[in-house]
Specification:
It comes from Musa troglodytarum (fe'i banana). Belongs to the LOB domain-containing protein family. Pfam families: LOB. This is LOB domain-containing protein. The structure is a single chain. This protein is rod-shaped. Among the domains are: 68 residues, no CATH class; 29 residues. It contains 7 helices and no strands. Helices cover 62% and strands 0% of the residues. With 156 residues, it is mostly helical.
C-alpha cells in the first residue's frame, strides 16, 4: 500500500512512496528543492546507500549535511561549501584585523589623554565663563567681509 503523501524523493523520481521508504524521513514533500539538489549532485541511490550505512541516530544530521553540501555545490559548482567557508574565514580575519587596529587606536588615544597634564581643563575652569575669547574657536572659519569681526567674536 502506498503512502498518500509521497516524499520529495519519490515525487521527484515519479515513483510510489512505500511506508518503509529510506528517504521519506529526511526529504519531506514540503521541500522538493532540497531533494532536487541532492539528486543532481549525489544521485538518489547513492544517498539512500550512504544513509543506510550510518547509524539511525546520526542519519538526520547526515542528511542535513548532504543537503547543505548539495545546495552549495549547485550554487557554486567549483568550490561548493568550501567556497562559503573560505569567504567567511576571510571576513572573520578582516574583521579581527579591524578590531585590533581600533583597539590599538583606543589605547593610543587613552595613553595620550593620560600623559597630557590637565592644563586645558584647569585653564578653562579658572577663566570666567562669560568672557569672550579673543579669537574664534576656528580661526578663518567665520571670516566674512560684510560682518565686523567684533560681532563674530561675541556670537561665536
Amino acid at each position: 500500500m502506498s503512502n498518500p503523501t509521497r516524499c520529495a524523493a519519490c515525487r521527484y523520481l515519479r515513483r510510489r512512496c512505500c511506508e518503509d521508504c529510506a528517504l521519506a524521513p529526511y526529504f519531506p514533500s514540503a521541500n522538493p528543492h532540497r531533494f532536487a539538489c541532492v539528486h543532481r549532485i549525489f544521485g538518489a541511490s547513492n544517498v539512500a546507500r550512504m544513509l543506510q550505512q550510518i547509524p539511525v541516530e546520526q542519519r538526520r544530521q547526515a542528511a542535513d549535511a548532504i543537503a547543505m553540501e548539495a545546495y552549495w555545490r549547485v550554487q557554486d559548482p567549483v568550490y561548493g561549501g568550501v567556497g562559503v567557508i573560505s569567504m567567511l574565514q576571510r571576513e572573520i580575519s578582516v574583521t579581527q584585523r579591524e578590531l585590533a587596529e581600533t583597539q590599538a587606536q583606543i589605547t593610543m588615544y587613552a595613553s595620550q589623554a593620560q600623559s597630557q597634564p590637565n592644563q586645558t581643563a584647569a585653564a578653562q575652569c579658572s577663566e570666567d565663563r562669560h568672557s569672550v575669547p579673543s579669537q574664534p574657536p576656528f580661526p578663518g572659519l567665520y571670516q566674512r567681509d560684510d560682518i565686523p569681526q567684533e560681532i563674530l567674536r561675541r556670537h561665536f
